[in-house]
Amino acid sequence: MNWEFKPGTGGSDLPSDVEPGEPELLEAFDRWIHSKHPNTERKGCPGRQVLMALALAKEKFEDEYTLTHIGHCAACLDDLKQIKRELTGAGSSR
Predict the structure, then answer these.
(1) Sign of the torsion formed by the C-alpha atoms of 66, 79, 47 and 44
(2) Do 15 and 2 meet the contact criterion of CB atoms below 8 Å apart?
(3) Most-buried pick from 21, 35, 38, 84 (CB within 10 A)?
(4) Can you give the pTM of this predicted structure?
């Protein structure tokens, strides 16, 4: 899956190459993580620089702590999606 985000209808932030059924799965995950793991205190968050490195990674991202954390932190997932939108927007204006 290519995690290059392109806003879709309704403001959805889904990768550009989703397979049938994936949008519903990704949206369900987004609802679940915001419900069960909002992390409003930002405990254990790796920080914007690390999320930026993940967003820019051309090869496999090897930081297992960060990957696991994002899977349990709505705040970091939202930050990562925002970074991807910013990078995609910046790339399309050139």
Answers:
(1) negative
(2) yes
(3) 84
(4) 0.76
